[in-house]
From TrEMBL:
Protein name: Beta-carotene oxygenase 1
Protein family: Belongs to the carotenoid oxygenase family.
Keyword Amino-acid biosynthesis: no
PANTHER family, sorted: BETA,BETA-CAROTENE 15,15'-DIOXYGENASE, BETA-CAROTENE DIOXYGENASE
Highest taxon of source: Eukaryota
GO MF annotations in UniProt: beta-carotene 15,15'-dioxygenase activity; carotenoid dioxygenase activity; metal ion binding
Transmembrane feature ranges: none
Cofactor binding note from Swiss-Prot or TrEMBL: Binds 1 Fe(2+) ion per subunit.
GO annotation, biological process: carotene catabolic process; retinal metabolic process
Needed cofactors: Fe(2+)
Residues annotated as binding Fe cation: 220, 284, 355, 560
Length: 574
């Protein structure tokens, strides 16, 4: 447990006398927490951060019927469940970074042509401790939380020693994962939180570390055809080694063990030693084909010594991430049957990426698509101080998100000449044999200015055509959503004035014959706060609007989510 009783503050702690005394009391049950939350939410509306990103959002735990315009397909039944940061100010303390905010879950339930909206803060230990203390008391990636600010350096050092390995946050704000019959909010630490997808209530806290030695784990797991979860995490300097660990969570457990959690049956698939003991790569997702797991070791690395001393040095963990543009990016391919890594060394130039799009095999090659950058300006762009009222003009990415395709020949003529391109498919991507036997890969660009990519997941690991994504140019403003045809590189778009669409989620038509038979769902928030947000339903083939469900609430900008078909979870009105 995170110790709620300790009084922590963030570095920018204001004068304690400015605090509202009604917020300073400790103890008390849920009603008091609720009251404080209300006040915290009110306090979050500051002129400095009065933007769609920084403003605290109210939760709406009871279903609100949306006003539906247009005709939603009758087969669209289930819950769109999404996650993202909703609260960045607690009492007088503020998070530094948008990705630090407290997780706010929200859902749209589709039933008989009607749509119901609800939202609820994840009651993580982090949330409870912060609200109880009425300040940020648990560190997030971009915000280090401190014990009493009056402590001098020696007191800080003592406090540091008693927190040598601080308990990580369980503020799981990034995504939603299905494991077995259950759903979890996920972040990137060793904790995930079970949630009720209908009521959005927070349930058990799961510590991956009890089942597999990882300190960090991705929030973008994959699912195999049997519904097992495949995920990976980093094990930092454990028994003198730093490694990336791939693990599998079974979709079901034997009948006689039904009461046990599926995590008890978690299996380690394999592990990949890190190129560097003290500088493991940061990664946010990985790839999967029918026969291989793809892990990309990018030169965007955590500095473990810096991390271990961050607390005492008064810096956040994010400052311990560094991109080395002169290093290589290594590709690792693990055979899913043998669990062994392909021995040939493949690499490309330095890049930064967060999202794999899809990957597949063709004629002895592995093809994988990423959204990549040439620097780390994306993370920096989301510091809240950058997202104040003039950010649309002032904040610019120095690297545009680029959809890159790599084509990697697993089977090639071992006697091929040094310097020859081993790619035998129609692509401008290359893979050139080098003197030492390593293979240097260069990408083909499929498109630019898209992020938060989604596909028809039935095509995950298979040859595919379509990417659905949010369109951005050089700023953090999502202006449109796009459908990219990876074969022709054509893009079609949906966008309207003042509309900021979220990550588009593809939902297949149950009778689908083609990859894009279905709808695309996106939450649209308005840049004018007086206008109501809506959930947009597009025909995935043509990107024409089928309908929209408008909800008169202040909706948060979110990150990721999933659609849960009705047969998987009964809808709330059942
Ligand atoms: C949202 C919009 C856009 C795009 C957004 C993108 C590309 C978002 C990517 C999000 C990522 C990479 C989120 C990662 C979050 C990571 C977190 C919260 C990690 C926490 C880890 C902790 C606390 C671990 C500590 C570990 C230690 C200390 C280990 O020693 C655009 C750009 C499309 C525009 C519209 C909106
Ligand atoms: Fe992500």
């Amino acid at each position: 447990m995170i110790p709620c009783s300790e009084v922590f503050v963030t570095p920018e702690e204001p004068n304690p006398e400015q605090k509202d005394p009604s917020l300073a009391q400790t103890g008390g049950g849920q009603p008091r927490l609720q009251k404080r939350l209300g006040r915290a939410q009110a306090l979050g509306i500051s002129s400095e951060m009065d933007t769609l990103y920084g403003r605290n959002k109210e939760e709406h735990p009871e279903p609100i019927k949306a006003e539906v315009q247009g005709q939603l397909p009758t087969w669209l039944r289930g819950i769109l469940l999404r996650n993202g940061p909703g609260m960045h100010t607690i009492g007088d303390s503020k998070y530094n970074h948008w990705f630090d905010g407290l997780a706010l879950l929200h859902s749209f339930t589709f039933k008989n042509g009607e749509v119901y909206y609800r939202s609820k803060y994840l009651r993580s230990d982090t949330y409870n401790c912060n609200i109880e203390a009425n300040r940020i008391v648990v560190s997030e990636f971009g915000t280090m939380a401190y014990p009493d600010p009056c402590k001098n350096i020696f007191a800080k050092a003592f406090s540091y020693l008693s927190h040598t390995i601080p308990e990580f946050t369980d503020n799981c704000l990034i995504n939603i994962m299905k494991a077995g019959d259950d759903f979890y909010a996920t972040g990137e630490t060793n904790f995930i939180r079970k949630i009720n997808p209908q009521t959005l209530e927070t349930l058990e806290k799961v510590d991956y570390n009890k089942y597999v030695a990882v300190n960090l784990a991705t929030s973008h797991p994959h699912y195999d055809s049997a519904g097992n979860v495949l995920n990976m995490g980093t094990s930092i300097v454990d028994k003198g080694k730093t490694k990336y660990v791939l693990f599998k969570i079974p979709s079901s457990v034997p009948e006689k063990e039904k009461k046990k959690s599926c995590f008890k049956h978690l299996e380690v698939v394999c592990s990949i030693p890190s190129h560097s003991l003290l500088h493991p790569s940061y990664y946010h997702s990985f790839g999967l084909t029918e026969n291989y797991i793809i892990f990309i070791e990018q030169p965007f690395r955590l500095d473990i010594v810096k991390m271990a001393t961050a607390y005492i040095r008064g810096v956040n963990w994010a400052s311990c991430l560094a991109y080395n543009k002169d290093d290589k990016t290594w590709f690792h391919f693990i055979d899913r049957k043998t669990k062994k890594e392909v021995s040939t060394k493949f690499y490309t130039d330095a890049l930064v990426f967060f999202h794999h799009i899809n990957a597949y095999e063709e004629d002895g090659h592995i093809i994988f698509d990423l959204i990549a950058y040439t620097d780390n300006s994306l993370y920096d762009m989301f510091y809240l101080k950058n997202l104040d009222k003039d950010f649309e003009e002032n904040i610019k990415l120095t690297s545009i998100p680029t959809c890159k395709r790599f084509v990697v020949p697993l089977q090639y003529d071992k006697d091929a000449e040094v310097g020859s391109n081993l790619v035998r498919l129609a692509s401008t991507a290359t893979a050139v044999k080098e003197k030492d036997g390593t293979i240097y890969c260069q990408h083909e660009t499929l498109g630019e200015g898209i992020e938060l990519p989604r596909i028809n997941y039935d095509y995950n690991g298979k040859k595919y055509k379509y990417v659905f994504a949010t369109e951005v140019q050089w700023s953090p403003v999502p202006t449109k959503i796009a459908k990219l045809n990876t074969q022709t590189k054509e893009m079609i778009h949906w966008g309207q004035d003042h509309c900021w669409p979220s990550e588009p989620v593809f939902v297949p038509n149950p009778d689908a014959k083609e990859e894009d038979d279905g709808v695309v769902l996106t939450c649209v928030v308005k840049s004018d706060p007086k206008e109501a947000p809506f959930l947009l339903v597009l025909d995935a083939k043509t990107f024409t609007e089928l309908g929209r469900a408008t909800v008169n609430v202040e909706m948060h900008m979110d990150l990721h989510g999933m659609f849960i078909p009705e047969q998987v979870v009964k809808t709330e009105t059942d």
